[in-house]
Amino acid sequence: MTATGRSDPAADPTGTLPPALRVEALEQLLTERGLIDPQVMDQVIDTYETQVGPMNGAKVVARAWTDPEYRARLLQDGTAAIAELGFSGPQGEHIVVVENTSEMHNVVVCTLCSCYPWPVLGLPPSWYKDPAYRARVVREPRTVLAEMGLELPESTRITVRDSSSEVRWFVLPQRPAGTEGLTEEQLAALVTRDAMVGVARVEAGPVEERVPAS
Amino acid sequence: MDLSDDLGGTPGWGRLQPPAPEEPVFAQPWYARTFAITLLTIGGISGRNLDSFRYTLARLDHDAYHRDGYYGRWLNASESMLVDSAILAPGAVEARARALRGERVPEPPAPEPARPDHTPAGPGSLRDIDTRPVFSPGQRVRALAEKPAGASRLPAYVRGHSGTVEALQPASVLPDTNAVFDGENPQHVYSVRFASRELWGADAEDFDLMIELFESYLEPA
Fold it and tell me: What is the DSSP string of chain B?
């Protein structure tokens, strides 16, 4: 065992140092040694705040809903079809797309850490990283989904996908009824992060009331 | 002993809440700094790889794993990897943090770096291998009853249980050895489907559990 952050009362007689202070100390030490550049850190943070997120996955879903040939390619080779729209990168080496239907519902978890398809969904939301989600969704998914607000009929079969290797799962949600007249862009605005992990449905919702993703 | 990361099926956790519709990518500034430092630490500063990072996370004790949440464990793992590679002295971060809040504490000198001697055979984790897959789709398999190695990605809740191979996935470097710089040893990876009642008993909800398992984690059922 090495380093701090482990429970050794003798090493920290005055109480635990807050993580914000420890990361500031770590950044300072690495910067002084020329090992890290705070501006490079800022760029990394900005990328994941503004460029990589569920708005990317929503574009993939909207394309699949409106272009049957794209949909077929997406289900055949997710990584390649997603790259067609310009999305690739860390945690996206091999993305497999599975379709949710009235009969079959897929929901994704990583019980061992929080593996997640970054290029299409960005960084995982807090519920995905919650130990309660990681522990329970592989044991009682119907109950967990109901607690999260998704009641599935008994006739819907559930498959839970535990992302234990480098395979990343991406859920193609069901297109809601009443959206036949919408454009691809309007459809993308309806698609939520939670639907692309399998803990929510996409709701038709009045498009004009939605703020377009910037 | 199971590691801190192996949460699948463990009891005692609370209810889930409906997800917040909008949530900032980084709810606190230190989450963002920790995220960036960790990516750059894995990416080169420590000379350690993604499997090593995951294994470092898994070996945190319960308190270090859970106390400050997701980015708290990332911070602890980053510091641990930097100490393991002798980029930082043990206690260096704590000493600097105390200095930052006005305490007069001696700071240990920077050690001579000792990064792992390790060159990946290629980018990422996927590899082409020429061995034929031992198992094929439709075949019944059983996950090993014993955890094979410290860094293995075989969760406790599937061990000893039987399922059906659903698909062959791209071959990938084996975390068991890659995490500790003992070779990439790429293997075939299988999506294996388990019936919920095989895993959790006759009273469990009826559903299927699909998980990716390395070839050496499986035996014919």
Answer: ---TT--TT-S------PPPS---SSSSHHHHHHHHHHHHIIIIIS---HHHHHHHHHHS-HHHHHTTHHHHHHHHHHHHHHHHTTSS-TTHHHHHHHHHTT---PPPPP----------SSSSSB----SPPS--TT-EEEE-SS--STT----GGGTT-EEEEEEEEEEE--HHHHTTTS----EEEEEEEEEHHHHH-TTS---EEEEEEEGGGEEE-
Task: Give Cα B130 distance to the centre of its chain.
Answer: 27
On the 0-12 / 13-18 / 19+ scale of CB atoms within 10 A, B204 is: middle
Q: What is residue B99's predicted lDDT score, i.e. its pLDDT? A: 96
Task: Report whether pLDDT(A14) > 60.
Answer: no
How many residues can be counted in chain B?
221
Segments of chain B with pLDDT less than 50: none
Q: Does A205 touch chain B (CB under 8 A)?
A: no
- Rounded to two decimals, the ipTM of the complex is 0.96
Out of A7, A88, A110, A165, the active site residue is A110
A16 pLDDT band (50/70/90 cuts)? confident
Query: Is A115 an annotated catalytic residue?
Result: yes
The full set of domains in chain A, from first to last, is 18-49 (no CATH), 53-202 (3.90.330.10)
Other beta carbons within 10 Å of A10:
5
**Domains assigned to chain B:** 1-116 (1.10.472.20), 140-220 (2.30.30.50)
Mean per-residue pLDDT over chain A, rounded:
91
Chain segment B66-91, per-residue pLDDT in tens: 999 999 999 999 999 999 999 999 99
Find chain A residues with C-beta within 8 A of B214's C-beta: 165
Q: Return the amino acid letter for B44.
A: G
Kindly report the pTM of this predicted structure: 0.93
Tokens (6 digits) for A24:
């500031």
